[in-house]
Amino acid sequence: MTLAQHGAIVIGAGVAGLSTALYLQRAGVAVAVIDPLGPAGGASFGNAGLLSPDTAVPIALPGMLRKVPGWLTDPLSPLSVRPSYFPRALPWLLRWIESGRLSRVLAISDAMRALHRESLGCWQELLGPALYRDLIRPVGQVQVWEGAADTANAVVERQVRERHGIRCEELNADDLGQMFPGIAREVTRGLLVPGNGFTVSPQRSVQTLGELFLQEGGVLINERAMKLIPCEGGGWMVMTNVANRSAEHVVIAAGAWSGQLLDPLGIKVALETERGYHAMLFSPEVMPALPISNKTRAFGVTPMEDGLRVAGTVEISGLDAPPNEERAKILVQHARRMFPALTGAQVRYWMGFRPSTPDSLPILGAAPDRPGLHLVFGHGHFGMTGGPPSGRMVARLITGQAPGIDPTPYAAQRFR
Ligand SMILES: Cc1cc2nc3c(=O)[nH]c(=O)nc-3n(C[C@H](O)[C@H](O)[C@H](O)COP(=O)(O)OP(=O)(O)OC[C@H]3O[C@@H](n4cnc5c(N)ncnc54)[C@H](O)[C@@H]3O)c2cc1C
User: Comparing C-alpha atoms, which of 325, 336, 388 is closest to residue 362?
Assistant: First the structure.
């Protein structure tokens, strides 16, 4: 079949694909990235921008089973499953509940920690010092709670932090009032995690990866990959909507859509989309200095260069259902409750598709039994954090270098 045109083709120009593409290119591989939307057109556009090397708590935690009936009956709860989609999501949900057993949670948290702790270092490597200073704020994050009661999973979260020696500082209502003038008095407790940080613009951060990729000789192709076909004698052909493109290596980094490219090859992965929303408040009356995650109401606010981003919620209803903007409106209500001075800001609503696995770990490395095909997707709630270290690890595996992190916990084979 056709001679390989590129050393590697990366499918998807989100944070995962562009990180992989840049690391591969810097290791001497000629790389093309294919994406009809260009850089940051997917989940990487509108996430909350939290960069969390010191976060190692998976999403599925003990005791989730009893919450399932509530998710099905309340479409506006922080986590909802559209009833008509429930039968399709069921196998994934069962695996998700299984991942929430304490013994699994601790093993998963070890793998999350191994990947996430490299996050800020990888962003710095990818962006270089000046762009890193412009885009990234390694200044901490704060979690807060309302009232005296612990959330159900506080004990597990504490256990994970202690297991990994993660530094944190407890805050009372007075501390919070000083750090965040105007915060409601019902927010009574907080935790500062100084090792975490955020980006002032997820969109610009990922677009900057795209610009660096182009400046350093990469090729960006605005096409949709339709099917992957193995070539006789090695390599792959990517049939796109308008062309056939071939390469020795193909990397699937198509976020929540990655499973659609693997299905025709008979490779099944446990990938579901947890849709999430943001409300962007432009010219807000309040701008906290650090991101705040409200654990009682399951939402967060992040100070960004173009306003205050209120983000959160999980909605399991597949890739095709239209957005439910009511979920984004609730985020605004939550933010106004936490900061009553937030009254008149102009708002933009957005929905994005988190590419999620049941165990909160991405799927990284070689595709099973398919030489030359590689996987970098499934980062769920943590792609801005885990995308760059994942890209580095997979680029090292492809170019025959030591991966730096044990790749075993992220292998696709774990779902067989
Ligand atoms: C509301 C919300 C808040 C979040 N907050 C955070 C946070 O604070 N911190 C954090 O670390 N993570 C956060 N995340 C998660 C993070 O945004 C994702 O994990 C991450 O963006 C996934 O990156 P990706 O590159 O895998 O996918 P995407 O960014 O979705 O990119 C996938 C790309 O693949 C392309 N594509 C799809 N199919 C094809 C095809 N057939 N051919 C070619 N291209 C294709 C798409 O066009 C898209 O550009 C949040 C997510 C949401 C929704």
Answer: 388
pLDDT > 70? residue 2: no
Q: Is 311 in the pocket of ligand 1 (CB under 6 A)?
A: yes
pTM of the predicted structure, to 2 decimals? 0.97
Helix (H, G, I), strand (E, B) or coil at 113: helix
Q: pLDDT tens, 168-211?
A: 999 999 999 999 999 999 999 999 999 999 999 999 999 999 99
CA 298/CA 276 separation, integer angstroms: 12
DSSP code string of 216-237: TT-EEE---EEEEEEPTTS-EE
44 touches ligand 1 (CB under 6 Å) = yes
- Identify the residue whose C-alpha is closest to ligand 1 atom 48: 42
Q: Residue 378 carries which side chain, given as an amino acid letter?
A: G
Q: Report whether residue 39 contacts ligand 1, using a CB cutoff of 6 Å.
A: no
pLDDT in tens, 277-304: 999 999 999 999 999 999 999 999 999 9
CB of residue 391 inside a 6 A radius of ligand 1: no
**How far does the centroid of ligand 1 lie from the alpha carbon of residue 319, in Å?**
13
